[in-house]
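Notebook, bench 3.
Goal today: get a predicted structure for Osteoclast-stimulating factor 1 from Cyprinus carpio carpio so we can plan the truncation constructs. The sequence was checked against the plasmid map this morning, with no discrepancies at the termini. Length recorded as 197 residues. Pasting the sequence as submitted so the record is complete.
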Amino acid sequence: GQVKVYRALFTFDPRTVSFNLLFSNWWKGTCRGRTGLIPSNYVAEQAESIDNPMHEAAKRGNLSWLRECLDNKVGINGLDKAGNTSLYWASGLSLFCPIMAHKIKKILLGQPNCELNQQNKLGDTALHAAAWKGYSDIVEMLLNKNARTDVVNNEKKTALDMATNAQCASLLKRKLGGVILRTHSNAEEYLDDEDSD
Protein backbone atom coordinates (compact mmCIF):
# COMPACT_ATOMS: atom_id res chain seq x y z
CA GLY A 1 0.00 0.00 0.00
CA GLN A 2 2.63 2.57 -0.93
CA VAL A 3 3.07 4.60 -4.13
CA LYS A 4 5.55 7.20 -5.27
CA VAL A 5 4.15 10.50 -6.44
CA TYR A 6 5.98 12.62 -9.04
CA ARG A 7 5.33 16.24 -9.86
CA ALA A 8 4.67 17.50 -13.39
CA LEU A 9 6.78 20.56 -14.24
CA PHE A 10 4.28 21.96 -16.71
CA THR A 11 0.75 23.33 -16.45
CA PHE A 12 -1.59 20.51 -15.58
CA ASP A 13 -4.20 19.77 -12.97
CA PRO A 14 -1.91 17.70 -10.70
CA ARG A 15 -4.80 15.62 -9.35
CA THR A 16 -5.49 14.13 -12.78
CA VAL A 17 -2.01 13.07 -13.96
CA SER A 18 -0.29 9.75 -13.34
CA PHE A 19 3.18 8.69 -14.47
CA ASN A 20 4.90 5.39 -15.18
CA LEU A 21 8.60 5.31 -16.10
CA LEU A 22 9.07 3.52 -19.42
CA PHE A 23 12.71 4.24 -20.29
CA SER A 24 15.39 6.36 -18.65
CA ASN A 25 14.34 9.45 -20.65
CA TRP A 26 10.60 8.91 -21.10
CA TRP A 27 7.55 8.56 -18.88
CA LYS A 28 4.14 7.28 -19.79
CA GLY A 29 1.64 9.83 -18.52
CA THR A 30 -2.11 9.48 -18.16
CA CYS A 31 -4.43 12.44 -17.77
CA ARG A 32 -8.25 12.27 -17.91
CA GLY A 33 -8.17 8.92 -19.69
CA ARG A 34 -5.63 9.95 -22.35
CA THR A 35 -2.15 8.42 -22.34
CA GLY A 36 1.04 9.69 -23.97
CA LEU A 37 4.81 9.88 -23.64
CA ILE A 38 6.42 12.67 -21.65
CA PRO A 39 10.14 13.56 -21.63
CA SER A 40 11.78 12.95 -18.25
CA ASN A 41 12.83 16.63 -17.95
CA TYR A 42 9.09 17.48 -17.67
CA VAL A 43 8.80 15.47 -14.46
CA ALA A 44 10.33 16.37 -11.08
CA GLU A 45 12.97 13.83 -10.08
CA GLN A 46 12.38 13.89 -6.33
CA ALA A 47 9.56 11.49 -5.68
CA GLU A 48 7.37 11.60 -2.61
CA SER A 49 6.13 8.34 -1.12
CA ILE A 50 2.52 8.08 0.01
CA ASP A 51 1.44 5.32 2.34
CA ASN A 52 -2.05 3.93 1.81
CA PRO A 53 -2.84 5.60 -1.53
CA MET A 54 -6.33 4.08 -1.59
CA HIS A 55 -7.08 5.81 1.72
CA GLU A 56 -5.76 9.12 0.41
CA ALA A 57 -7.88 8.86 -2.74
CA ALA A 58 -10.97 8.15 -0.62
CA LYS A 59 -10.22 10.99 1.84
CA ARG A 60 -9.63 13.51 -0.94
CA GLY A 61 -12.54 12.42 -3.10
CA ASN A 62 -10.15 11.76 -5.99
CA LEU A 63 -12.10 9.35 -8.17
CA SER A 64 -9.46 9.01 -10.91
CA TRP A 65 -6.73 8.22 -8.36
CA LEU A 66 -9.00 5.65 -6.71
CA ARG A 67 -9.61 3.96 -10.05
CA GLU A 68 -5.90 4.02 -10.82
CA CYS A 69 -5.18 2.36 -7.46
CA LEU A 70 -7.71 -0.37 -8.27
CA ASP A 71 -6.29 -0.80 -11.79
CA ASN A 72 -2.82 -1.24 -10.28
CA LYS A 73 -4.04 -3.80 -7.72
CA VAL A 74 -3.52 -1.64 -4.62
CA GLY A 75 -5.06 -3.53 -1.70
CA ILE A 76 -8.60 -2.35 -1.03
CA ASN A 77 -8.67 -3.64 2.57
CA GLY A 78 -5.34 -2.21 3.70
CA LEU A 79 -5.30 -0.58 7.11
CA ASP A 80 -3.79 2.75 8.05
CA LYS A 81 -2.14 3.43 11.43
CA ALA A 82 -5.54 3.82 13.10
CA GLY A 83 -6.77 0.55 11.59
CA ASN A 84 -9.13 2.25 9.12
CA THR A 85 -9.91 0.95 5.64
CA SER A 86 -10.43 3.17 2.60
CA LEU A 87 -14.16 2.43 2.86
CA TYR A 88 -14.15 3.85 6.39
CA TRP A 89 -12.41 7.04 5.18
CA ALA A 90 -14.80 7.43 2.28
CA SER A 91 -17.57 7.92 4.85
CA GLY A 92 -15.97 11.13 6.12
CA LEU A 93 -16.09 12.68 2.66
CA SER A 94 -19.87 12.87 2.53
CA LEU A 95 -20.05 16.11 4.48
CA PHE A 96 -17.85 17.97 1.98
CA CYS A 97 -18.79 16.34 -1.31
CA PRO A 98 -21.77 13.97 -1.06
CA ILE A 99 -21.94 13.16 -4.79
CA MET A 100 -18.24 12.20 -4.99
CA ALA A 101 -18.47 10.28 -1.72
CA HIS A 102 -21.40 8.30 -3.08
CA LYS A 103 -19.46 7.44 -6.27
CA ILE A 104 -16.37 6.39 -4.33
CA LYS A 105 -18.34 4.22 -1.92
CA LYS A 106 -20.21 2.63 -4.80
CA ILE A 107 -16.90 1.74 -6.48
CA LEU A 108 -15.40 0.38 -3.25
CA LEU A 109 -18.52 -1.60 -2.38
CA GLY A 110 -18.56 -2.98 -5.92
CA GLN A 111 -15.22 -4.70 -5.39
CA PRO A 112 -15.75 -8.42 -4.70
CA ASN A 113 -13.25 -8.52 -1.84
CA CYS A 114 -14.27 -5.31 -0.03
CA GLU A 115 -14.30 -6.01 3.71
CA LEU A 116 -17.39 -4.32 5.14
CA ASN A 117 -16.96 -5.28 8.77
CA GLN A 118 -13.30 -4.43 9.41
CA GLN A 119 -12.97 -2.76 12.79
CA ASN A 120 -10.46 0.02 13.42
CA LYS A 121 -8.53 0.43 16.69
CA LEU A 122 -11.62 1.94 18.32
CA GLY A 123 -13.64 -1.05 17.18
CA ASP A 124 -15.70 1.02 14.75
CA THR A 125 -16.70 -0.23 11.30
CA ALA A 126 -17.77 1.81 8.28
CA LEU A 127 -21.37 1.18 9.41
CA HIS A 128 -20.62 2.67 12.84
CA ALA A 129 -19.10 5.75 11.18
CA ALA A 130 -21.98 6.25 8.74
CA ALA A 131 -24.59 5.86 11.51
CA TRP A 132 -22.73 8.25 13.82
CA LYS A 133 -22.38 10.85 11.07
CA GLY A 134 -26.04 10.48 10.13
CA TYR A 135 -25.43 9.39 6.52
CA SER A 136 -28.54 7.32 5.93
CA ASP A 137 -27.72 6.75 2.24
CA ILE A 138 -24.41 5.13 3.20
CA VAL A 139 -26.02 3.14 6.01
CA GLU A 140 -28.50 1.82 3.44
CA MET A 141 -25.73 0.98 0.94
CA LEU A 142 -23.78 -0.92 3.60
CA LEU A 143 -26.87 -2.78 4.81
CA ASN A 144 -27.75 -3.74 1.23
CA LYS A 145 -24.28 -5.28 0.96
CA ASN A 146 -24.96 -7.21 4.20
CA ALA A 147 -22.78 -5.28 6.61
CA ARG A 148 -23.15 -6.79 10.06
CA THR A 149 -25.29 -4.84 12.52
CA ASP A 150 -24.24 -6.85 15.57
CA VAL A 151 -20.59 -5.73 15.65
CA VAL A 152 -19.77 -3.85 18.85
CA ASN A 153 -16.97 -1.35 19.22
CA ASN A 154 -14.60 -0.89 22.17
CA GLU A 155 -17.34 1.00 24.03
CA LYS A 156 -19.70 -1.98 23.51
CA LYS A 157 -21.83 0.01 21.06
CA THR A 158 -23.41 -1.24 17.83
CA ALA A 159 -24.04 0.98 14.82
CA LEU A 160 -27.61 1.42 16.10
CA ASP A 161 -26.26 2.72 19.40
CA MET A 162 -24.17 5.22 17.44
CA ALA A 163 -27.02 6.44 15.21
CA THR A 164 -27.52 10.19 15.50
CA ASN A 165 -30.68 10.57 13.44
CA ALA A 166 -34.00 8.80 13.15
CA GLN A 167 -33.54 7.71 9.53
CA CYS A 168 -30.29 5.82 10.23
CA ALA A 169 -31.75 4.27 13.35
CA SER A 170 -34.88 3.20 11.47
CA LEU A 171 -32.82 1.50 8.73
CA LEU A 172 -30.75 -0.33 11.32
CA LYS A 173 -33.83 -1.38 13.32
CA ARG A 174 -35.48 -2.69 10.18
CA LYS A 175 -32.39 -4.76 9.36
CA LEU A 176 -32.42 -6.14 12.90
CA GLY A 177 -36.07 -7.11 12.41
CA GLY A 178 -37.20 -4.86 15.21
CA VAL A 179 -35.02 -6.64 17.80
CA ILE A 180 -33.15 -4.01 19.74
CA LEU A 181 -29.75 -5.17 20.98
CA ARG A 182 -28.98 -2.02 22.94
CA THR A 183 -30.12 -0.03 25.89
CA HIS A 184 -30.01 3.50 24.43
CA SER A 185 -29.43 5.09 21.02
CA ASN A 186 -28.36 8.66 20.37
CA ALA A 187 -31.39 8.87 18.07
CA GLU A 188 -33.86 7.40 20.57
CA GLU A 189 -35.44 10.75 21.37
CA TYR A 190 -36.20 11.26 17.67
CA LEU A 191 -37.51 7.75 17.19
CA ASP A 192 -40.22 8.20 19.81
CA ASP A 193 -41.74 10.99 17.73
CA GLU A 194 -40.91 10.06 14.14
CA ASP A 195 -40.59 6.28 13.86
CA SER A 196 -43.86 4.41 13.68
CA ASP A 197 -42.39 1.03 12.59
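The chain has two domains: 1-51, 53-194. The chain is about 40% helix and 15% strand.
Flagging this for group meeting.
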